[in-house]
Amino acid sequence: MPDCWGQAVAESVMRATLEHAAERDEERQVLETNIENGRARRFYARLGGWEGRTLDEMFPDGASTPLVEVTWELAALQLSK
To answer: Would you say residue 81 lies in a domain?
Structure first.
């Protein structure tokens, strides 16, 4: 929602998610985002995520969406900022 951009809500939620995973002794978090979503990709990179493999999400109707995996190595993050 563009009217909410810049409010730090997404950053707070993402940091809480990564902190929760680290507290559960998970080694990494991985998500997929649309490869054309530059805003999300920059956001994830700013929070320490790095891009890995690309893939196509296939839908039952035959359509596909290009995705990129974003990974956080939790031990390497400084989450309490």
So the answer is: no
Residue span of the structural domain in which 61 resides: 2-75
Q: How far is CA 68 from the centre of its chain?
A: 10
Exposure of 53 in the CB half-sphere (CA atoms within 13 A): 4
The predicted structure's pLDDT at residue 50: 96
pLDDT along the chain (81 residues), means of 10: 73 93 94 96 96 93 95 81 47
Q: How far apart are CA 56 and CA 16, in angstroms?
A: 28
pTM metric for this prediction: 0.81
List the CATH number of the domain containing 15. Answer: 3.40.630.30
Are the C-beta atoms of 37 and 57 separated by less than 8 Å? no
